[in-house]
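Record 1 of the preview.
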Amino acid sequence: MTKQENQSICPLCAHMPECFCKDRTREYLRCPSCDLVFVPEKDLLAPGAEKARYDLHQNDPNDSGYRDFLNRLFQPLENKLEPGARGLDFGCGPGPTLSLMFKEAGYDCDVYDLYYANDPAVLKRQYDFLTCSETMEHMFRPGEEFERFVSLVKPGGWIGIMTQLHDEAPVPFERWHYKDDDTHVCFFSKKSFQTLEKTYGLRAEFHSDSVILFQANRFL
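->
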């Protein structure tokens, strides 16, 4: 498939992608501009099928292993926050836990999730920090969602992302387990997030364990 034959555009930066690879169930395109690998619209799940898959998740706030996993994002972000900071956990899922960890540390934290906590009121506020843990890989339109993130964070505030990066995968993409979840439809690299950093005038920090922190411009 050539660039001209493919009618999709990159959902992160709107450039024309190229065919990247195919497996038994889906095609994957790659944007040569921002390095996003993504599933074209024809292969995306319908909302009912997508939610049915999410309903199988067992994210228990009392599970110490799950808390340890979320601590990869919690710890570096919490180190950036001022006392009394208020945040939003975007994509909290059926068992909000990261927001609870921030509350336990003394920070107010709202939650939002399209299927499990769909409260539009929380999207009309501004926050000192926003978290998005293991959620961006599910987004059909990550560029639009990230633009929303930037609008939700106050000048000088922080956006914390956790998602596995395809350029850090331990095996070639074709054998990478992360792509085999049929609700995972966008796969980012360091270059993808550097594109967002430049587009929105942010300052990005790349931490271990697939964690990226962005600080909003203080002077907006």
